[in-house]
Design brief:
The chain has helices at about 5-10, 10-25, 40-55, 60-65, 70-95, 100-110, 120-125, 130-144. The protein is mainly alpha-helical and about 140 residues long.
Length: about 140
């Protein structure tokens, strides 16, 4: 696999690295109230655009078929909303005996209990060729 072909295949990860590098060099662009107005553009426009774009590629038959995978849906929901938060809690119990700041541990616990961001899940699933219909069912379950 040539370098150019590899870059085309990994365009999303490269884009993330590029955006992080630009944000590190010029953080004022993305702050609240800054030129990009993330409180509006990210919250409303970007997430809506991601869902709209992803929804355009879904076929009704495939989405209906994805609804029938009950065991898979149960597994993913239990893993995401029960197993992972429990594992994080156990890990935090170990970290609590270390000199790590208590507020950092509380922040890790909060993040560990949150479902994955919907927009990231859609983009990453699409990037790796995952089943978008099943993803959308899970996101609907989590959001509702």
């Amino acid at each position: 696999m040539g370098l150019l072909e590899r870059l085309r295949k990994e365009w999303f990860i490269l884009g993330i690295v590029l955006v992080i590098a630009v944000a590190r060099l010029e953080p004022a662009v993305g702050v609240k109230g800054g030129p990009l107005k993330p409180e509006i553009t990210i919250t409303y426009i970007a997430v809506s655009a991601i869902f709209f774009n992803s929804g355009l590629s879904l076929k009704t038959e495939e989405l209906t078929s994805a609804l029938m995978h009950v065991k898979l849906h149960l597994f993913v929901q239990i893993f995401t909303l029960v197993f992972f938060p429990t594992a994080i809690w156990l890990f935090l119990q170990l970290l609590s005996i270390t000199p790590i700041n208590e507020w950092l541990l509380k922040g890790l616990q909060t993040v560990g209990c949150m479902p994955p961001p919907v927009s990231s899940a859609v983009i990453l699933t699409k990037a790796v060729g995952g089943n978008e219909e099943i993803l959308h069912v899970h996101m609907w379950i989590i959001v509702c």
